[in-house]
Amino acid sequence: MPISSPIQVQFPVAEQRVNSMLDQQAEAYVKLVLAVGCHQSDYVDAYYGPQSWRTEQRLLPLPLLLQNAKGINTQFAALAQQTLSQTQSQRLSFLQLQLDSVIFYIEQLQGKSVSFRQQSAGLYDALAPEYQLSDFALSLSTLDQLLPGNGDLRQRFEDYRAQFIVPSHAVACVFNACVQKARQLTGLHITLPTAENFKIEYVTDQIWTAYNWYQGQFNSVIQLNQDQPLYLERAMELASHEGYPGHHVFNVLQEQSLVQQQGWVEYAIYPLFSPISFLSEGSANYALAMIMTDEQRLAFERDVLMPMAGIEADIAHYQQVMQVYKQLAYLDNYVCQKLTDGHIDTDTAAALLVKYGLYSDSRAAQRVRFYQANQAYVINYNFGEHSVKNWVAAQQAKGATAWQAFETLLRGPLSASQILAGLSR
């Protein structure tokens, strides 16, 4: 879909010249990302810029793409020597960081061997804290005490959670109710374009649980994978993560504020393996905490979702169990790092998820496939969430409300290093 014409604002001649140069290099950057996407279909997660730019792309040799990328980088360096306004400087910083990631990715496609930590820094501008298996012992011990019965902890956890599986015939009703609730709660704090909307699809045979495919013009397709059971608490988590105020809202606000109002076409493309994913996934993971307290979530699940799904169980105790279970989130990074760096094979990775993450065998196998496809991308979920949470709290300490801070972050994306730098000030 074509992007709308940006709002016309009159600038001094020198500023207009720099803006024009930025626009030219932004176009070159977008076309470069589209060209890289010809080599890896998963690379371009969303694009709603001029369709002629997409259709004119053809498979070009990686060395040529790398040469083009370095040429754009030279132009960025020259722009950095100009007298820039704060807005221009911020725009250029984003473009430079994204381009550095593109260069790193092209070199990786060419066969350059990189470690998990090198990917984290090179693609996402982030280095998550590292954990050892012993760091998860206390959480597992607490779960052992909370779960009924004796014997194998994984099996007890699986048996216990089974009572909170949403029956297949109720999945659509439950998930739609969650998305609508998340939409209503988000609308109390963020004014979204009247044209924004979404469509929900139910799919199978995917390595992920749910996905938001942003279409442009303020519309998304939210897909929910049916390969694994939908647990009650995941319904609201996924609705807020993929929809409101998660990915859908993140993309809508960028399109509105940066693409349509500013005319910054670089935000009309989303290279998945790039720094913007740190904020995208981090804010989406933190989205549920923005719209509901633990008490409000429990009440909604108890009073609305459980009757809808025909579930009768102790939801308060279940919430307590799942809060402890979430403390195992960084196990994702540990196992993925070991697998990516060649220290373990896929069978061992799955076994670690079963033993320490209490995964079912089928879910562990699915997660390992996700690791193989996305590697260091996993840091964007847990480390991204913690970083966004801390950044919002830091802005609150300076006088902003949580929603003011959160919306500001979505409308003017920051990278991991920028977010973390803001925490230290």
Question: Would you mind describing this structure in some detail?
Answer:
Strand 3 and strand 4 form a beta hairpin. The strands form two sheets. This protein has a three-stranded mixed beta sheet, covered by helices on one side. It is 61% helix and 7% strand. The chain is mainly α and 425 residues long.
Helices and strands in order:
Elements: H1 13-37, E1 44-47, H2 51-55, H3 62-80, H4 86-109, H5 116-124, H6 137-146, H7 153-162, H8 171-187, E2 197-203, E3 210-216, E4 219-225, H9 232-242, H10 247-260, E5 269-271, H11 276-291, H12 294-309, H13 315-325, H14 331-340, H15 346-357, H16 361-374, H17 379-397, H18 402-411, H19 416-424
Parallel strand pairs: 2-4
Antiparallel strand pairs: 1-5, 3-4
Helix pairs in contact: 1-3, 1-4, 3-4, 4-5, 6-13, 8-9, 9-11, 11-17, 11-18, 14-15, 15-16, 17-18, 17-19
List the secondary-structure elements in sequence, H or E.
HEHHHHHHHEEEHHEHHHHHHHHH
Structural class designation: mainly alpha
The rough form would be described as globular
State the strand order across the main sheet: 2-4-3
Largest sheet: 3 strands, mixed
How many beta-strand segments?
Answer: 5
Report a brief summary of the structure:
The chain is mainly alpha-helical and 425 residues long.
